[in-house]
Each structure stands twice: as C-alpha cells, then as structure tokens.
Amino acid sequence: MSLVIEGEAGTITVPSATLTSLVTLAVEGGDGARVRRGRRHAEGEIADGHARVTLELVARHGEILPQLARQVQEQATDVLATMCGLVVEAVDVEVEEVEWAAQAPAARLSSCSTSGT
After folding, report:
1. Which residue has the higher pLDDT, 89 or 2?
2. What are the structural domains of the chain?
3. How far apart are CA 87 and CA 27, in angstroms?
4. Disulfide: which of 32, 36, 95, 104 matches 112 by Cβ 3.0-4.6 Å?
5. Strand runs labelled E in 61-100
6. In terms of Cα–Cα distance, which of 76, 71, 58 is closest to 19?
7. Contact 33, 42 (CB under 8 A)
8. How many other C-beta atoms lie within 10 A of the C-beta of residue 47?
9. Using 50, 70 and 90 to split pLDDT, how confident is the model at 103?
C-alpha cells in the first residue's frame, strides 16, 4: 500500500510502512484502542488517489465497540486525507481483542467487525 505521486518535477513515494505508521499514530492518539501488533494488523490498497484500509484493533475493556470502531474509522480517514491527499473509500475495522486496562496480555474475546467509513 505505497502512495506514489508522479509529476513533472519527479516522483514522490510514501512507503507502506510510513502510511501504516500514520494510521497507527492517529488511532492510538485517541482513547480506548490500539492497532494490534503482529504481521497482519493494518492493510490497505491505494489506486488512483483512493484508499481502502483494514485495521485490526485491540480495544480497552468497557469501551462501546461499535462507537470505538467508528471513531477509529474517522481518525484513519482524517489522517490519510489530510496528510496524503487521499480519498478514503473505506476503513474496515476488526476488533480482534479486548484487554483490561492494566492487563499485559490481551484477553481474547470474540471478534466484532465494522466496515465502511
């Protein structure tokens, strides 16, 4: 999911790792969620200035999951639109884990998914 912009003065490339970092920082800057660590925690596709992203989250116990997922969708959309000039078609959110605030390893509970923006 790299962003490549070609122009008369040359090419601008924002690599996948940078885009993932932007989205992760935006999500974790809010309260109640963090992007899940590991190999498959944030994925996306970019084509013709449009983006679609899938995020796997760990939510803090006590959060209202659909509300939290919508907040994450807004945060990810805002950062990609503002900092990269992308039109975000969708941010699909999967709440993969729930953890207690003081708990080191996350308690695994059933998944909850929210699609769209």
Report:
1. 89
2. 3-114 (3.30.70.1350)
3. 18
4. 95
5. 87-99
6. 76
7. no
8. 9
9. low
CA distances from 61 to 19, 34, 111 (A): 28, 12, 13
Phi, psi of 40 (to 5 degrees): -120, 75
Q: Which amino acid is at 89?
A: E
CB 101 within 8 A of CB 61: yes
Name residue 52's amino acid: R
pLDDT tens-digit readout, 19-53: 888 998 988 888 888 888 876 688 889 999 999 99
104: confidence class by pLDDT, cuts 50, 70, 90: very low
Distance CA 115, CA 53 (A): 10
C-alpha R_g of the chain: 15
